[in-house]
Write a structure and sequence with these properties.
126 residues; mainly alpha; Zincin-like; three-stranded mixed β-sheet
Length: 126
């Protein structure tokens, strides 16, 4: 993928323009733009920062702060990207982590003015 595009997406998220970042990602990958909603659905653990619900193509985040968290937003977008038209999920947590980290690393390489520390709530990336 193009590092400038990845850096742009991360910058938009850090700047609080998460919906715009999701629109650009969806356009780039030729998929529908997922909805985004603050607040986790009932029954989800409070230890997670976000989740993707295939039924309504919505990324749910724990709170408004998470809207500016590139790792969580990109991780959940990966789940959206890997969901087939019949709502079957084909991605893994490990690959979603890798997808998010690749964007963040490209951002750090391309634009030194943004620094972002990646913390993993989903386990290590290999």
């Amino acid at each position: 993928m193009e590092p400038r595009f990845e850096a742009l997406v991360v910058r938009l998220i850090l700047d609080g323009k998460t919906e715009e970042a999701l629109e650009k990602l969806a356009e780039h990958f030729n998929v529908d733009t997922p909805r985004i909603k603050v607040g986790l659905p009932k029954g989800n653990r409070s230890k997670i920062k976000g989740c993707y619900i295939t039924k309504n193509q919505t990324i749910h985040v724990l709170n408004g702060e998470v809207l500016k968290d590139p790792f969580t937003i990109l991780h959940e977008f990966y789940h959206h990207l890997r969901t087939s038209p019949d709502n079957r999920h084909r991605g893994t947590e490990k690959l979603a982590n890798k997808f998010a980290v690749e964007f963040i690393q490209a951002s750090q390489t391309s634009e030194k003015k943004y620094t972002y520390t990646v913390t993993f709530n989903y386990g290590p990336v290999k």
